[in-house]
Design brief:
Layout (H helix, E strand, L loop, with lengths): L1 E5 L3 H11 L6 E6 L2 H11 L3 E4 L8 H8 L7 E6 L5 H6 L4 E4 L4 H17 L15 E6 L2 E6 L3 E7 L2 E6 L2 E5 L3 H8 L3 E5 L2 E4 L3 E6 L5 E5 L6 E3 L1 H12 L2
Helix pairs in contact: 2-3
Protein name: DNA-binding response regulator
GO molecular function, one term: phosphorelay response regulator activity
Pfam families: LytTR (PF04397), Response_reg (PF00072)
């Protein structure tokens, strides 16, 4: 069983590594001290089990788990934390177990067995997992690695076949998510201007009608206006008035 350990405390990672060394067939393939590095390690090493601290700098363990739920194959997630107050949120994030530090050997053994049971079936991603808290980043896969895109930096989202092109402050990337699911999750941040396009509210400057009567949305950081479908015009005019 391939394992990734993610904890911002080196001593906590060392203890887990020592405990895991006592289990035959368990190999630690990577360690991480923050959420971003944890996701990159998981993309690179395809672990069967991820041992996650919750309170980490940047992206916390709960958000890491929500991103991991979209991985294929999906790794088993076990949270390891100093507090038991996060237990409910952990299981809402589809964790297979929840360990309180200092982790006891017998509890880790039980968690490994649960992870083995989970990975034997390789459960499919749960569409409802993480519904209680929205992500702060989108996750784009790039040749075996990951790029994390802050949601606040996204300018607009455009559907293209089975992908969505994310246009953001640093360029553009493809994510394997549907435009509808992104609208459901981030509806207060984005406006639909077309069946294949969502724009960030803070990017919308004005609507312009051309000589042919077609309406286009002008964005702050976009070189060209984007086409607006007729059914979206009235909603967008109201949004522009409220800017």
């Amino acid at each position: 069983m391939r394992v990734v350990i993610a904890d911002d405390e080196p001593l906590a990672r060392e203890r887990l590594r020592m405990l895991l060394a006592q289990h035959a067939g368990v190999v630690v393939v990577a360690e991480a001290g923050d959420g971003r590095t944890a996701l990159e390690a998981c993309a690179a090493h395809d672990p069967a089990l991820v041992l996650l601290d919750i309170a980490m700098p940047g992206i916390d363990g709960l958000e890491v788990a929500r991103h991991l739920s979209a991985f294929e194959p999906r790794p088993a997630v076990v949270f390891c934390t100093a507090y038991d107050a996060h237990a409910l949120m952990a299981f809402e994030a589809a964790a297979v177990d929840y360990l309180v530090k200092p982790v006891r050997p017998e509890r880790l053994q039980a968690a490994i067995e649960r992870a083995r049971t989970f990975t034997a079936g390789r459960a499919t991603p749960d569409a409802d997992s993480g519904a209680e808290k929205r992500r702060t980043h989108l996750c784009a896969r790039l040749r075996g690695s990951l790029r994390l895109i802050p949601v606040e930096e996204i300018r607009y989202l455009q559907a293209e076949e089975k992908y969505v092109v994310v246009h953001h402050a640093r360029g553009e990337d493809l994510v394997e998510e549907s435009l509808k699911s992104l609208e459901d999750e981030f509806g207060e941040r984005f406006l639909r201007i077309h069946r294949n396009c969502l724009v960030a509210r803070h990017e919308l400057v004005e609507l312009r009608r051309d000589l042919d009567g077609h309406v286009h949305a002008v964005l702050r950081h976009c070189d060209r206006p984007l086409e607006v479908s007729r059914r979206c015009v009235s909603q967008l005019r109201e949004a522009v008035r409220q800017l």
